[in-house]
Amino acid sequence: MNYKKLIRSHIKSVPAYVAGKSIQETAEELGLSPFGILKLSSNENPLGPSPKAVYAACESLKSSSVYPLPDARFLKSAIAKSVSLNPDSVFATGPGMDSLIDTFCKLVLSPEDEVIISVPTFSFYEIAARVYGATPVFIPRDPDFSVNADEILKAVSEKTKIIFICSPNNPTGNSVSEDVVRKLAEKSNSFIFLDEAYVEFSSQGSLIHLLTDYENIVIGRTLSKIYGLAGLRIGYGLMKPWLACEMQKIALPFSISSVSETAAVAALSDTEHFQSTFKMVQTGRKQLIEGIHSFTPFKAAPSDANFIMVDVSPFYSRQICDSLLKDGIIIRSCDSFRGCGKHSVRITVGTFEMNEKVIKSLSNASVF
Ligand SMILES: *Cc1c(COP(=O)(O)O)cnc(C)c1O
Q1: Which among 23, 270, 324, 339 is placed 20 to 30 Å from 313, CA to CA?
Q2: Positions of E strands within the chain
Q3: 304: Cβ below 6 Å to ligand 1?
Q4: Which DSSP symbol is given to 333?
Q5: First-to-last CA distance in the chain?
Protein backbone atom coordinates (compact mmCIF):
# COMPACT_ATOMS: atom_id res chain seq x y z
CA MET A 1 0.00 0.00 0.00
CA ASN A 2 1.26 3.42 -0.95
CA TYR A 3 0.09 5.54 1.95
CA LYS A 4 1.03 8.73 0.10
CA LYS A 5 -2.19 8.17 -1.87
CA LEU A 6 -4.18 8.93 1.29
CA ILE A 7 -3.00 12.54 1.25
CA ARG A 8 -5.36 15.02 -0.45
CA SER A 9 -4.19 15.40 -4.03
CA HIS A 10 -3.95 19.20 -4.15
CA ILE A 11 -1.42 19.20 -1.28
CA LYS A 12 1.11 18.34 -4.01
CA SER A 13 0.93 21.93 -5.23
CA VAL A 14 1.73 23.46 -1.81
CA PRO A 15 5.19 25.05 -1.80
CA ALA A 16 7.31 24.82 1.35
CA TYR A 17 7.49 27.97 3.47
CA VAL A 18 10.98 29.51 3.27
CA ALA A 19 11.88 31.12 6.58
CA GLY A 20 14.84 33.36 7.34
CA LYS A 21 17.95 31.54 8.57
CA SER A 22 18.21 31.02 12.31
CA ILE A 23 21.12 32.11 14.50
CA GLN A 24 21.71 28.50 15.63
CA GLU A 25 21.97 27.15 12.06
CA THR A 26 24.29 29.96 11.04
CA ALA A 27 26.53 29.58 14.08
CA GLU A 28 26.92 25.86 13.36
CA GLU A 29 27.62 26.41 9.66
CA LEU A 30 30.22 29.10 10.26
CA GLY A 31 31.66 27.66 13.45
CA LEU A 32 30.96 30.97 15.21
CA SER A 33 29.53 31.69 18.64
CA PRO A 34 25.79 32.46 18.40
CA PHE A 35 26.44 35.66 20.36
CA GLY A 36 28.48 37.21 17.56
CA ILE A 37 25.69 36.80 15.02
CA LEU A 38 23.31 39.55 13.92
CA LYS A 39 19.95 38.29 12.70
CA LEU A 40 18.37 40.89 10.45
CA SER A 41 16.45 38.49 8.25
CA SER A 42 13.03 38.08 9.89
CA ASN A 43 11.98 41.63 10.81
CA GLU A 44 12.07 40.93 14.53
CA ASN A 45 12.44 43.65 17.15
CA PRO A 46 16.18 44.09 17.87
CA LEU A 47 15.30 45.68 21.24
CA GLY A 48 13.71 42.39 22.31
CA PRO A 49 10.31 42.00 23.96
CA SER A 50 8.76 44.52 26.31
CA PRO A 51 10.19 43.95 29.82
CA LYS A 52 6.63 44.24 31.13
CA ALA A 53 5.57 41.38 28.84
CA VAL A 54 8.47 39.24 30.08
CA TYR A 55 7.54 39.85 33.69
CA ALA A 56 3.85 39.13 33.07
CA ALA A 57 4.67 35.94 31.14
CA CYS A 58 6.87 34.64 33.98
CA GLU A 59 4.13 35.31 36.53
CA SER A 60 1.52 33.60 34.37
CA LEU A 61 3.63 30.42 34.12
CA LYS A 62 2.53 29.71 37.70
CA SER A 63 -1.06 29.17 36.47
CA SER A 64 -0.04 26.99 33.52
CA SER A 65 -2.09 24.05 34.81
CA VAL A 66 -5.30 25.89 33.91
CA TYR A 67 -6.72 26.30 30.39
CA PRO A 68 -6.93 29.86 29.07
CA LEU A 69 -10.35 31.24 28.05
CA PRO A 70 -11.18 29.75 24.62
CA ASP A 71 -11.63 33.11 22.88
CA ALA A 72 -8.74 34.95 24.61
CA ARG A 73 -11.24 37.44 26.04
CA PHE A 74 -8.72 39.54 28.00
CA LEU A 75 -6.49 39.89 25.00
CA LYS A 76 -9.45 40.76 22.76
CA SER A 77 -10.40 43.60 25.11
CA ALA A 78 -6.81 44.87 25.26
CA ILE A 79 -6.52 44.78 21.46
CA ALA A 80 -9.91 46.48 21.04
CA LYS A 81 -8.76 49.27 23.33
CA SER A 82 -5.46 49.68 21.47
CA VAL A 83 -7.17 50.06 18.09
CA SER A 84 -10.31 51.88 19.35
CA LEU A 85 -12.78 49.26 18.14
CA ASN A 86 -15.34 47.10 19.96
CA PRO A 87 -14.07 43.70 21.19
CA ASP A 88 -16.68 42.02 18.98
CA SER A 89 -14.75 43.25 15.91
CA VAL A 90 -11.61 41.46 17.10
CA PHE A 91 -10.61 37.84 16.49
CA ALA A 92 -7.44 36.94 18.39
CA THR A 93 -5.60 33.81 17.37
CA GLY A 94 -2.40 31.80 17.47
CA PRO A 95 0.04 30.74 16.27
CA GLY A 96 0.59 34.24 14.91
CA MET A 97 -1.18 36.04 12.08
CA ASP A 98 -0.32 32.99 10.01
CA SER A 99 -3.10 31.25 11.91
CA LEU A 100 -5.51 34.09 11.09
CA ILE A 101 -4.71 33.69 7.39
CA ASP A 102 -5.19 29.93 7.67
CA THR A 103 -8.47 30.22 9.59
CA PHE A 104 -9.80 32.77 7.12
CA CYS A 105 -8.93 30.55 4.15
CA LYS A 106 -10.55 27.60 5.93
CA LEU A 107 -13.70 29.66 6.40
CA VAL A 108 -13.95 30.91 2.84
CA LEU A 109 -12.16 28.67 0.34
CA SER A 110 -13.35 25.52 -1.38
CA PRO A 111 -11.47 23.59 -4.05
CA GLU A 112 -11.80 25.36 -7.46
CA ASP A 113 -12.04 28.81 -5.82
CA GLU A 114 -9.50 31.49 -6.68
CA VAL A 115 -7.60 34.05 -4.66
CA ILE A 116 -5.71 37.02 -6.08
CA ILE A 117 -2.27 37.85 -4.75
CA SER A 118 -0.44 41.08 -5.62
CA VAL A 119 3.21 39.99 -6.02
CA PRO A 120 5.97 40.12 -4.90
CA THR A 121 4.62 39.68 -1.40
CA PHE A 122 4.49 37.49 1.70
CA SER A 123 4.48 33.85 0.62
CA PHE A 124 2.11 32.35 3.16
CA TYR A 125 -1.07 33.55 1.35
CA GLU A 126 -0.29 31.19 -1.51
CA ILE A 127 0.46 28.29 0.82
CA ALA A 128 -2.74 28.75 2.85
CA ALA A 129 -4.91 29.09 -0.27
CA ARG A 130 -3.46 25.98 -1.89
CA VAL A 131 -3.94 23.93 1.28
CA TYR A 132 -7.71 24.45 0.87
CA GLY A 133 -7.55 23.56 -2.80
CA ALA A 134 -7.91 27.10 -4.13
CA THR A 135 -5.90 28.45 -7.06
CA PRO A 136 -3.81 31.57 -6.54
CA VAL A 137 -3.82 34.13 -9.37
CA PHE A 138 -0.71 36.30 -9.24
CA ILE A 139 -0.94 39.92 -10.35
CA PRO A 140 2.41 41.73 -10.63
CA ARG A 141 2.82 45.06 -8.88
CA ASP A 142 3.81 48.13 -10.93
CA PRO A 143 7.56 48.86 -11.33
CA ASP A 144 7.38 51.16 -8.26
CA PHE A 145 5.76 48.19 -6.41
CA SER A 146 2.34 49.81 -6.10
CA VAL A 147 -0.71 47.57 -6.28
CA ASN A 148 -2.28 47.54 -9.72
CA ALA A 149 -6.01 47.70 -8.93
CA ASP A 150 -7.13 47.65 -12.56
CA GLU A 151 -5.18 44.48 -13.37
CA ILE A 152 -6.53 42.88 -10.21
CA LEU A 153 -10.12 43.77 -11.12
CA LYS A 154 -9.58 42.37 -14.60
CA ALA A 155 -8.46 39.09 -13.03
CA VAL A 156 -11.52 38.83 -10.78
CA SER A 157 -13.84 35.99 -11.79
CA GLU A 158 -16.92 34.26 -10.38
CA LYS A 159 -14.50 32.03 -8.49
CA THR A 160 -12.54 34.82 -6.78
CA LYS A 161 -13.08 34.79 -3.02
CA ILE A 162 -10.16 36.69 -1.51
CA ILE A 163 -7.78 39.42 -2.68
CA PHE A 164 -4.62 39.56 -0.55
CA ILE A 165 -2.97 42.95 -0.11
CA CYS A 166 -0.04 43.48 2.24
CA SER A 167 0.57 47.06 3.45
CA PRO A 168 3.31 47.98 4.15
CA ASN A 169 4.27 45.20 1.79
CA ASN A 170 6.76 42.49 2.68
CA PRO A 171 9.38 42.51 1.09
CA THR A 172 9.10 45.81 -0.85
CA GLY A 173 8.26 48.10 2.10
CA ASN A 174 5.68 50.37 0.44
CA SER A 175 2.07 50.97 1.51
CA VAL A 176 -1.11 50.66 -0.51
CA SER A 177 -3.21 53.75 -1.04
CA GLU A 178 -6.63 54.02 0.55
CA ASP A 179 -8.22 54.62 -2.87
CA VAL A 180 -6.96 51.30 -4.18
CA VAL A 181 -8.37 49.37 -1.23
CA ARG A 182 -11.72 51.17 -1.52
CA LYS A 183 -11.87 50.45 -5.24
CA LEU A 184 -11.14 46.75 -4.72
CA ALA A 185 -13.61 46.48 -1.84
CA GLU A 186 -16.34 48.15 -3.91
CA LYS A 187 -15.84 46.42 -7.24
CA SER A 188 -14.53 42.91 -6.63
CA ASN A 189 -17.40 41.12 -4.84
CA SER A 190 -14.65 39.37 -2.86
CA PHE A 191 -13.06 39.68 0.53
CA ILE A 192 -10.04 41.96 0.79
CA PHE A 193 -7.49 40.60 3.26
CA LEU A 194 -5.37 43.58 4.22
CA ASP A 195 -2.20 42.44 5.99
CA GLU A 196 -1.02 45.20 8.32
CA ALA A 197 1.80 43.27 10.04
CA TYR A 198 4.05 46.34 9.76
CA VAL A 199 1.51 49.16 9.89
CA GLU A 200 2.71 50.46 13.26
CA PHE A 201 5.95 51.55 11.56
CA SER A 202 4.26 53.44 8.75
CA SER A 203 3.60 57.15 8.54
CA GLN A 204 0.49 56.58 6.40
CA GLY A 205 -1.14 54.68 9.27
CA SER A 206 -3.78 51.98 9.36
CA LEU A 207 -6.83 51.66 7.14
CA ILE A 208 -8.94 50.43 10.09
CA HIS A 209 -11.51 53.16 9.45
CA LEU A 210 -12.49 51.33 6.23
CA LEU A 211 -14.06 48.63 8.41
CA THR A 212 -16.94 51.03 9.06
CA ASP A 213 -17.66 51.39 5.34
CA TYR A 214 -17.07 47.84 4.07
CA GLU A 215 -18.22 44.42 5.23
CA ASN A 216 -15.71 42.61 3.03
CA ILE A 217 -12.45 43.88 4.53
CA VAL A 218 -10.44 41.84 7.03
CA ILE A 219 -7.37 43.44 8.58
CA GLY A 220 -4.57 41.17 9.80
CA ARG A 221 -2.26 42.23 12.62
CA THR A 222 0.47 40.61 14.69
CA LEU A 223 2.40 41.03 17.93
CA SER A 224 5.49 39.57 16.26
CA LYS A 225 6.90 42.75 14.79
CA ILE A 226 6.77 46.09 16.67
CA TYR A 227 5.66 44.38 19.89
CA GLY A 228 8.65 42.03 19.80
CA LEU A 229 6.77 38.83 20.67
CA ALA A 230 7.47 36.74 17.53
CA GLY A 231 8.36 33.70 19.64
CA LEU A 232 5.01 33.76 21.46
CA ARG A 233 3.03 33.57 18.18
CA ILE A 234 0.08 35.94 18.63
CA GLY A 235 -1.98 37.42 15.80
CA TYR A 236 -5.35 39.05 15.43
CA GLY A 237 -7.88 40.09 12.84
CA LEU A 238 -10.15 43.14 12.75
CA MET A 239 -13.44 42.79 10.88
CA LYS A 240 -17.21 43.14 11.10
CA PRO A 241 -18.62 41.37 14.19
CA TRP A 242 -20.65 38.85 12.13
CA LEU A 243 -17.45 37.74 10.41
CA ALA A 244 -15.50 37.58 13.68
CA CYS A 245 -18.25 35.24 14.99
CA GLU A 246 -17.83 32.91 12.00
CA MET A 247 -14.05 32.87 12.50
CA GLN A 248 -14.44 32.12 16.20
CA LYS A 249 -16.77 29.23 15.36
CA ILE A 250 -14.17 27.35 13.33
CA ALA A 251 -11.05 28.47 15.22
CA LEU A 252 -9.05 25.97 17.21
CA PRO A 253 -10.07 26.39 20.84
CA PHE A 254 -7.33 27.76 23.14
CA SER A 255 -5.07 28.63 20.20
CA ILE A 256 -3.39 31.34 22.27
CA SER A 257 -1.64 29.98 25.35
CA SER A 258 -2.24 31.65 28.71
CA VAL A 259 1.40 32.76 28.81
CA SER A 260 1.13 34.34 25.36
CA GLU A 261 -2.15 36.03 26.21
CA THR A 262 -0.80 37.52 29.43
CA ALA A 263 2.41 38.69 27.74
CA ALA A 264 0.45 40.21 24.86
CA VAL A 265 -1.85 42.18 27.17
CA ALA A 266 1.19 43.58 28.98
CA ALA A 267 3.01 44.36 25.70
CA LEU A 268 0.01 46.28 24.36
CA SER A 269 0.07 48.51 27.44
CA ASP A 270 3.82 49.21 27.23
CA THR A 271 3.77 52.46 25.27
CA GLU A 272 7.36 53.20 26.24
CA HIS A 273 8.73 50.06 24.55
CA PHE A 274 6.48 50.71 21.55
CA GLN A 275 7.72 54.28 21.22
CA SER A 276 11.42 53.41 21.55
CA THR A 277 11.04 50.72 18.89
CA PHE A 278 9.19 53.13 16.63
CA LYS A 279 11.86 55.83 17.02
CA MET A 280 14.71 53.37 16.52
CA VAL A 281 13.13 52.20 13.25
CA GLN A 282 12.42 55.74 12.01
CA THR A 283 16.03 56.87 12.47
CA GLY A 284 17.55 53.48 11.58
CA ARG A 285 15.71 53.29 8.28
CA LYS A 286 17.06 56.69 7.27
CA GLN A 287 20.56 55.76 8.45
CA LEU A 288 20.55 52.51 6.45
CA ILE A 289 19.19 54.04 3.25
CA GLU A 290 21.57 57.01 3.37
CA GLY A 291 24.52 54.79 4.28
CA ILE A 292 23.78 52.37 1.46
CA HIS A 293 23.46 55.20 -1.06
CA SER A 294 26.69 56.85 0.17
CA PHE A 295 28.94 53.81 0.53
CA THR A 296 27.64 51.22 -1.94
CA PRO A 297 26.48 51.22 -5.56
CA PHE A 298 23.20 49.61 -4.41
CA LYS A 299 19.72 51.09 -4.49
CA ALA A 300 17.48 50.97 -1.41
CA ALA A 301 13.73 51.32 -1.92
CA PRO A 302 11.81 53.72 0.34
CA SER A 303 10.11 51.87 3.19
CA ASP A 304 7.20 52.28 5.60
CA ALA A 305 8.22 49.15 7.51
CA ASN A 306 10.99 47.95 9.85
CA PHE A 307 13.00 46.58 6.93
CA ILE A 308 14.30 47.83 3.62
CA MET A 309 14.59 46.12 0.27
CA VAL A 310 17.86 46.71 -1.56
CA ASP A 311 18.59 46.09 -5.21
CA VAL A 312 22.15 44.73 -5.25
CA SER A 313 22.55 44.50 -9.04
CA PRO A 314 24.82 43.58 -10.76
CA PHE A 315 25.41 41.09 -7.94
CA TYR A 316 23.07 38.22 -7.19
CA SER A 317 21.24 38.51 -3.88
CA ARG A 318 22.71 35.15 -2.79
CA GLN A 319 26.26 36.45 -3.30
CA ILE A 320 25.60 39.47 -1.11
CA CYS A 321 23.84 37.39 1.58
CA ASP A 322 26.79 34.96 1.66
CA SER A 323 29.23 37.79 1.87
CA LEU A 324 27.41 39.37 4.84
CA LEU A 325 27.11 35.96 6.46
CA LYS A 326 30.91 35.78 6.59
CA ASP A 327 30.73 38.89 8.78
CA GLY A 328 28.13 37.15 10.96
CA ILE A 329 25.18 39.13 9.58
CA ILE A 330 22.08 37.26 8.41
CA ILE A 331 19.89 39.11 5.90
CA ARG A 332 17.20 37.77 3.61
CA SER A 333 17.63 37.03 -0.05
CA CYS A 334 14.37 37.88 -1.83
CA ASP A 335 14.80 35.31 -4.61
CA SER A 336 12.35 32.99 -2.87
CA PHE A 337 9.62 35.65 -3.20
CA ARG A 338 7.61 35.03 -6.36
CA GLY A 339 8.19 37.84 -8.84
CA CYS A 340 11.12 39.40 -6.98
CA GLY A 341 13.98 38.41 -9.27
CA LYS A 342 17.47 37.41 -8.19
CA HIS A 343 18.99 40.75 -7.25
CA SER A 344 17.15 41.95 -4.15
CA VAL A 345 17.80 41.51 -0.46
CA ARG A 346 15.68 42.46 2.54
CA ILE A 347 17.35 43.85 5.64
CA THR A 348 15.67 44.38 9.01
CA VAL A 349 16.36 47.79 10.54
CA GLY A 350 18.51 47.36 13.66
CA THR A 351 19.98 49.59 16.33
CA PHE A 352 22.44 52.33 15.31
CA GLU A 353 25.47 50.03 15.84
CA MET A 354 23.87 47.13 13.98
CA ASN A 355 23.06 49.36 11.01
CA GLU A 356 26.64 50.66 10.94
CA LYS A 357 27.92 47.06 10.72
CA VAL A 358 25.48 46.30 7.91
CA ILE A 359 26.52 49.34 5.87
CA LYS A 360 30.20 48.49 6.31
CA SER A 361 29.70 44.86 5.36
CA LEU A 362 27.59 45.79 2.31
CA SER A 363 30.21 48.25 1.21
CA ASN A 364 32.92 45.54 1.47
CA ALA A 365 30.68 43.12 -0.42
CA SER A 366 30.24 45.56 -3.29
CA VAL A 367 33.96 45.88 -4.10
CA PHE A 368 34.64 42.19 -4.78
C1 LIG B 1 5.62 38.41 9.84
C2 LIG B 1 4.45 38.51 8.96
C3 LIG B 1 3.21 37.93 9.26
C4 LIG B 1 2.92 36.93 10.31
O5 LIG B 1 3.47 37.02 11.46
P6 LIG B 1 3.11 36.05 12.66
O7 LIG B 1 4.40 35.94 13.35
O8 LIG B 1 2.58 34.75 12.14
O9 LIG B 1 2.08 36.79 13.43
C10 LIG B 1 2.14 38.13 8.42
N11 LIG B 1 2.28 38.88 7.35
C12 LIG B 1 3.44 39.46 7.02
C13 LIG B 1 3.50 40.27 5.80
C14 LIG B 1 4.55 39.26 7.80
O15 LIG B 1 5.73 39.77 7.40
Answers
A1: 23
A2: 38-39, 90-93, 114-119, 135-140, 160-166, 191-195, 217-222, 235-238, 299-300, 307-311, 329-330, 332-333, 344-348
A3: no
A4: E
A5: 55
pLDDT in tens, 15-28: 888 887 788 888 88
Q: Using DSSP bridges, classify how beta strands 114-119 and 160-166 pair: parallel, antiparallel or unpaired.
A: parallel
| Longest alpha-carbon distance in the chain | 63
Check if 226 has its Cβ closer than 6 Å to any atom of ligand 1: no
Does the CB atom of residue 224 touch ligand 1 within 6 A? yes
Cα dist. 242→99, 103, 164, 255, 292 in Å?
19, 15, 20, 20, 48
Confidence of residue 70 (pLDDT cuts 50, 70, 90): confident
Supply the pTM of this predicted model.
Answer: 0.96
pLDDT single digits (tens) 273-328: 999 999 999 999 999 999 999 999 999 999 999 999 999 999 999 999 999 999 99
Give yes or no for residue 235 CB within 6 A of ligand 1. Answer: yes
